[in-house]
Structure formats: C-alpha cells, structure tokens
C-alpha cells in the first residue's frame, strides 16, 4: 500500500487532480497496485486566509509520504512570486527534487504544428539551482547602495557583500544565478543514466555558454567528463538555437538536459508542440527521496470550475508517479487511457473535443476498468 | 553623403553583407540616398592572427561613422564566449545600443508554421543589461572560496565581495544579472514611444517576475509608471507562456518589450516562425548615437562560401539601417525587393528555392533598378 500526499491546490488544480486520482483508484481495482491519498490544503486560498505558504508542519507531514501528487497553485489576488517561491519552488528545494522530468511527445495529429515524423523528447530540467535560487537584492540611496545577501543550502553557506558607487542617483536590482559542481555533477550523472536506460547513446545539453560563460562553461566541462565516463556522446545547443530546432526538427532529440530557467521556457514551448499545456506531465524527482508529480500547467483561474480544464496533463503526471513508485505497467495503462481518449476524440475543447473535464475522466476510468 | 562602417565578419557574413551593400548601391542610382562604406576587418580571422577583438582603434574609427552594417562573427576554432563577449556584446555596450529591434513578420506562406492570419510582432529587446553583463565568478578551494568581482559603467561602479563556506569540498560558479532604474526607464520610454508611433495603444512586457522577482519586479513597476505617463496599456506575459503564445496566437502581439536574455531566445523562436534565421533583420540602436544593423543569424561556418546563405536577413537589416538614417522610402524599396523575391520564389534552398546567395542579390538589384 502506497501513501500519497494529494495537493490539489488552486484554480483548476482540484478538477484535474480528481481525474488523476479517480484513474489511480480504478487501477487499484484491476491490479496489485494500491494506495491511500491524504489531502493537503496548501495553496493560494489558505495563504489568503492564514498567511501560511509551505509550513514546517506541512513539510514534516509530507515527508511521511511515498510521493506527492500536485495540482497547481496560483491566485490572481496574490502578487507574482509569493506562492511560486513560497510553495512550489520551496517544495522542489526542500525535498531536493533536483530533476524535473518533462517529456514532450507527439500525440499526432493533435498538435498545432503538424509533423509527419513522430517525436519523443525527454527534457531533464535541473530543478534546484541556476537563476531559481531567489537570490537577489536592491541597491538604492536609502540603503546606501549596499546590500548583503546570502544563501544557505545543506552543504554550504554563501554570502554576498555588494556595494555600488553611482555618479548620480539611481537604483540597481541584481539577481544571482548559481551552479555548484556537486549540483551539476549529479544532474549530469542522472542525464547519462537516463539516456542509457532509454537505449540512447547521446545527451543534448542546452545552455548559453557563449554569454553566461562562467556557469555554463563549468556545466559543459562537467557534462563532458560524464560523457567520457559513460562512453556516450554529448551535443551542445545554445538555448536560442534550441528554440528553433524544436520547431523544425523535434524528432532529432532524445534526452535533453537543460538548466532550470531555460528548462522552464523550452518545456512550455514543448508542451505547445504536443497540443498545449494541457498535455504536459512533469515529475520533480529526488532519485533518493520524496518526489512530486504535477501537470506543467498552472491554476488557470479564468477557466476554473467550468469543466473546461484538460485533465490529460494531470493523468500523465500520475503515470510518471506510478512509474517512479515501481508500477510501470499501471503507468502504461494510464498512458493507454490517454491514447484512447485522443483516438476517440473524447477530449476537452482545447483539443477540439466537446467533453467536460469529468467526462474525460469517466472515459478514462471506463477504459481502465475494461482492461 | 552617409558614411557607414561595413563589418562583414566571419563565415557567411561577407556573402550576405555583399548583397546588402549591392542593394544599397543600387538605391544610390535611383534615389537621393548616397553613402560610402569603409570595410572593417573585425572578427574571428583577425583574432586568430593578431589576438585582437574590438580594439580601441576600432572603436574610435567606428565612432566617426553614421552607422555600422554588420555581418556575423563566430569561428568554430575559438572557444564560445570570446568573440561574442569581445566583439558583438562589447560593441552593443560601448556604443550603448540599448535597444535591439527585431521584427517578426509573417511572410506567409513561406513559414513552417502556416497560419492564415498575418502577424507583425515588433520585439524590442533591451540590449545592455540583464544577464548579459559578463559578471560572474568561480569560488573554489584554491581561491579560498572567495571572489571579488565588479562592473564599471559610465554612471556607476559596482563591486561584489563573495564568500562561501562549504561543509565539504565543492566549487561554485555564479553569474549576476543586473538592471538599473535608468536602464529600464529609457527602455520603457522607447517602447511606449515606439508603440505609439506604430499607432498601437499597448506594450507587452515579457519577464519571469514570479521567479526573478527583484529585477523583473522593478521592471514591471517602471513599465507601469511609463504606461500611466503615456496613457497606454501594458500587458504582462511570463516568458514561458510567451513562447507558447507566439506559436498559437502571434497575431495578437504588436510591440513586445523583452529583457536581454529572454529577448535572445524569443526572437530566434520568432525568426523560425517567419521562415528561419535567414529572415530576421536586427537593429542595435542607440537613439542618440551610433547604431549597428545585422542579420540575426550567425556566421554559419558549415555553409560559408557555398552560396547557400539566405541574404534576406542582411537586406532587412539594411532596410532598418536606412530607416534609422532618415531614408525610410529607400528602406521600403529594400522591403519590396525582398517581397518580390519571395513572390517569385527567387530564393535560396532554405526557403525552398534554387538560387544562390549572389543570384538572389542580383534579382534584388535588378528589381530596385527597375523601379
Ligand atoms: C510557476 C513557476 C514558478 C514554475 C517555474 O517557473 O518553474 C512553472 O512555470 C513551472 O514550469 O513549473
Ligand atoms: C552571438 C550571441 C552573443 C548573440 C546574443 O546572444 O545576443 C546572438 O545570439 C544574438 O541574438 O544577437
């Protein structure tokens, strides 16, 4: 019996998570897989009521679980950054989920960019470092153009003492991106292992080493060492070139390793190539600890509660969860259920269908129970 | 008589710049426009021979010109970052070309992503700040996990004293992104003026203010003030969402302001939407000083010297140059020449045509002379 934390969150989160959990419950009836799900009330609504984001209590409760199944957070009444930094990014950091797995698969022909050649890119986004550390400062007259900032992680403490001398009044804002050799090494190691397990002989590393030379120069060097260690190939792509290549030759990519910020952009672009955000599942993976699975879409408050949300991304996230928890066959059944709904056009309006969220869910559950 | 610096650079740079200058020479014969072009030998080849990138002598010679017409730099024999930082980014910084104008126009039907609705996005990329300052450091055992770095610009001096305390051996690499209130203010001002001049009532600002909260929070605030000042609308888009929106609804965007790094990515993506890098012209603009015009593509060493390079991007850059120098009608003739070549399929293989670079050039020159 697996114990999952279910965090529906805000907006369409609860609707799509419901479909995912219904599907997992259906699996329990026809397979040896079994789970219980404990609901966690974490998100914008609670924040507005109590001021709480991800509390210490949440963290210790979540730690008792085998995995987290997450909907979405986001509330238009709350300033950008608060929920993201205080809940989602904090979760990724606290549980050290350093791999963000985001497959981009052609579910042809349901894509805006029709291509005859099927593609199946597996993005591995580094999920704990880069420009996502929340490490920034403002320098202005009223603080004497000085700032002291720092970041504390399990294995280090880093401090910045910053001072500006302007020739006239101004204000400066800075934001620091950081990579550690350890962080990049474990990321690279995961990437080559992953590609190997998929029977590939190569990893593509995306960066902008011609401009952000320090961080991405070190990253290239570490990836090259790992490539040699594994006896595998390594391709470098600049992020700008990659955004183009994804459009004209997505079928030429397999396992793609990408640092945090660029991963955010490219995997959304990728989602669009496979039919929109409603098609993208995502796993925030700590290979030795607690992982979290979520659709890559947000809370979409504009369509919340209207039955318009496409639950496929959440179901694909559940597939990844099952795979991660040692139930790959059950995962494949969810994949087949998605395939079935697409083939029979039992889908939501974003994919050209006429069904409501829960109707798609019902079609999937029926499909699973009939296996 | 205008005086232009011509910097052909490396790879396909010379081939495409030749087409652009031939077209401008043709314009001289049929209009009041007149120019002389002085060739500058700057690029990878000279660097390999002399170790020189952009020298003080280059800078003072370039300063005497009315504008710079630039090809491309880049050489596979040189480590990523050296030519970029030492020539291209240095030029943008030294001449304070703080606006990078990159139109993304549908030249329907020559696009991989066919859309019935024409689009015409005008990206204004901030071109001197953000994560493009080359401000980074390494902290490791052999430097005692300490680094002192700094940046000096005309109006300020900024220093960083950084110290890490690791609990075990490691290595850290950091890279700093910086925005100044002055820098963002002049950028915002340009954007609203630009949109207004195009008869639009709105600017779209792209950022990632939900994660990089300091820099892009300040940027939002400044853009909002400018929007109020101009009595115009301001839309915010997260960069990940923008990469998707550009694919499904490019026609809904007009003037789009984007910080440096995201601008790099989105304008390449945009180039792809209009038929590839061979279609993208780019202006590095100092509204009160020396501007530089270049195709957005690089030196493409793999096809250099083979007559395969699409010269359209370079011709569109020349159009922007003429516009900037007070010859908008002559600029429009170059635009018409491009249109003519596309309509008659007198184009290079990347667009499905059969012509060589110089043949496309000849077709354009003939078209211009027959006006
Ligand atoms: C909500 C946001 C902080 C998040 C991110 O940028 O990582 C999201 O876009 C994602 O990709 O999961
Ligand atoms: C060559 C590189 C430094 C440059 C950039 O990143 O700005 C290029 O990609 C561009 O967009 O002009």
UniProtKB/TrEMBL annotation, chains A, B:
Entry-linked InterPro entries: ICDH/IPMDH, IsoCit/isopropylmalate_DH_CS, IsoPropMal-DH-like_dom
Is Flavoprotein included in the keywords of this UniProt record? no
**Listed Pfam families:** Iso_dh (PF00180)
- UniProt cross-references to SUPFAM superfamilies, sorted A to Z: Isocitrate/Isopropylmalate dehydrogenase-like (SSF53659)
Give the Enzyme Commission number: 1.1.1.85
Listed A to Z, the keywords are: Manganese, Metal-binding, NAD, Oxidoreductase
Which SMART domains did the record assign? Iso_dh
- What molecular function terms (GO) are annotated for this protein? 3-isopropylmalate dehydrogenase activity; magnesium ion binding; NAD binding
The enzyme class is oxidoreductase
Q: Which residues form the Isopropylmalate dehydrogenase-like domain?
A: 3-364
**Gene3D superfamilies to which the protein is assigned, alphabetical:** Isopropylmalate Dehydrogenase
Q: Does the keyword Oxidoreductase apply?
A: yes
Which cofactors are required for activity?
Mn(2+); Mg(2+)
What PANTHER family would the database entry show?
D-MALATE DEHYDROGENASE [DECARBOXYLATING] (PTHR43275:SF1)
Which protein is depicted? 3-isopropylmalate dehydrogenase
Q: What is the lineage of its organism?
A: Archaea, Methanobacteriati, Thermoplasmatota, Thermoplasmata, Methanomassiliicoccales
């Amino acid at each position: 019996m697996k114990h999952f934390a279910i965090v529906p969150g805000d907006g369409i989160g609860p609707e799509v998570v419901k479909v995912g959990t219904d599907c997992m419950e259906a699996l329990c009836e026809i397979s040896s897989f079994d789970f219980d799900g404990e609901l966690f009330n974490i998100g914008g609504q609670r924040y507005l009521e109590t001021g709480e984001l991800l509390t210490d209590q949440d963290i210790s409760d979540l730690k008792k679980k085998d995995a987290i199944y997450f909907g979405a957070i986001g509330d238009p009444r709350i300033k950008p950054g608060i929920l993201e930094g205080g809940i989602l990014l904090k979760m990724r950091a606290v549980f050290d989920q350093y791999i963000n797995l985001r497959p981009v698969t052609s579910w042809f022909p349901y894509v805006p960019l029709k291509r005859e050649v099927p593609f199946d890119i597996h993005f591995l986004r580094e999920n704990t470092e880069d420009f996502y550390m929340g490490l920034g400062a403002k320098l202005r007259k009223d603080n004497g153009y000085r700032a002291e900032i720092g970041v504390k992680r399990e294995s280090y403490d880093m401090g910045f003492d910053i001072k500006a001398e302007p020739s006239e009044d101004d204000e400066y804002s800075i934001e620091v991106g950081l990579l550690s050799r350890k962080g990049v090494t474990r990321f690279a190691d995961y990437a080559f292992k992953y590609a190997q397990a998929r029977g590939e002989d190569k990893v593509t590393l995306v960066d902008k080493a011609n401009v952000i030379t320090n961080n991405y120069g070190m990253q290239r060097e570490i990836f090259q060492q790992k490539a040699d260690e594994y006896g595998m190939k390594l391709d470098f792509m600049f992020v700008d070139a990659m955004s183009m290549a994804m459009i004209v030759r997505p079928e030429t990519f397999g396992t793609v390793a990408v640092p945090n910020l660029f991963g955010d952009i490219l995997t959304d672009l990728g989602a669009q190539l496979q039919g929109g955000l409603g098609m993208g599942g995502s796993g925030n993976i700590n290979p030795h600890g607690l992982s979290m699975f979520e659709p890559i879409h947000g809370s979409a408050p504009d369509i919340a509660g209207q039955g318009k949300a496409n639950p496929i991304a959440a179901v694909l996230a559940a597939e990844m969860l099952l795979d991660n928890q040692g139930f790959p066959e059950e995962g494949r059944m969810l994949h087949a259920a998605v395939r079935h709904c697409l083939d029979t056009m039992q889908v939501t309006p974003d994919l050209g269908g006429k069904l409501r969220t829960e109707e798609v869910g019902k079609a999937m559950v029926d499909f699973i129970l009939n296996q």
